[in-house]
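Listing S7. Sequence submitted for prediction.
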Amino acid sequence: MIKAIVFDLDDTLYDEMQFVKGGFKEVSLYVSRNYNINKNLIYNLLLEVLKNYGRGSTFDIALEKLDVNDEKLVPKLIDIYRKHTPHLSLYPQAKKILNILKKQKYGLGLITDGNSGVQKNKIKALNIEDYFNCIIFSDDYGIDKRKPSLFPYQKVIEKLNVNAKETIYIGDNPHKDFISAKKLGIHTVRILKGQYKDIKLENIYEANYQIKELTELFDLISQIKKLLRK
């Protein structure tokens, strides 16, 4: 019997690029005001750097390209990015799906990595906190407790008072979302959204099931229930 449905947050329930673009706009405005550079030029450069180099040194690379040399600026920009007030919206149908799952009396959980303050602001902006019986901010327990650590999955099933085989976990990132959940016996579902949607890894990293839209989740739950009854 399936008793709990656990979600990842970023690129699973909403498009994380909404948050990224909002943060980049605030950063661009700050740099523009203080260094007399066109804010649109800065914003488009940040998006270009992110696309070409990925995350990690976006601001460092962009400032180098802008010929802005200030060693104290990057920490300031990171702070602006993290603390900006995000304007976010769920994927289409996500709210309806959460409502249905709640009415069907599933225990609902959420596991999210990253700076806890940032992630809490995202959840507040999405107005989804009340849907969940349990939210695990992995950074509250230490960076080493981020996925793919076993810890957040163990913690969420403990809080929901279920066992692993009674739990379905939905995420988007095959690099970290599924390997440990599968080791525990959790049924894993990968939604093909966001920056990882076209990435295919070895089976050990991949989820048990794949969906393209959250609306496919109900049929999948029924499928898993039938397999468990055999």
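Caption to Listing S7: primary sequence and predicted structure tokens for the chain studied. The chain is about 45% helix and 10% strand. Residues 17-35 form the longest helix (19 residues).
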